[in-house]
Amino acid sequence: MKDLAYPVHKLMRGYYVRLEYLGPSELVAELERNIRNSDGIFKFMTVKLAEHADEEVA
Fold first, then answer.
1. CA-CA distance, 29 to 11, in Å (whole number)?
2. 8 pairs with which residues across the strands?
3. Residue 32: helix, strand or coil by DSSP?
4. pLDDT of residue 57
5. Percent of the chain at pLDDT above 90?
6. Which of 51, 48, 16, 15 has its CA nearest to residue 32?
């Protein structure tokens, strides 16, 4: 648990999770759909790190 920068649903503490993965755009869409349907996740952000990724580095 960490202090949040501002209240989210009247809560001031929450978990921060960083998930890095390699996959096609369909995977991103499906992951975001599942996150939106989850009751315990109030905010999320998806960031594209590179146009092309080297699988051996990931």
1. 28
2. 11
3. helix
4. 58
5. 29
6. 48
- Residue 9 and residue 18: Cα distance in Å, rounded? 21
Report which of 52, 15, 4, 43 is spatially closest to residue 32, judged by C-alpha positions: 43
Report which secondary-structure segment, H or E, holds 14.
Answer: strand 11-14
pTM of the predicted structure, to 2 decimals: 0.66
The answer to whether 28 and 46 are in contact (CB under 8 A) is yes
Instruction: Tell me: pLDDT of 58 over 60.
Output: no
Nearest CA to 25 out of 55, 44, 43, 52 is that of 52
Residue 31 corresponds to which tokens in the numbers above? 């992951």
Place of tokens 């921060």: 16
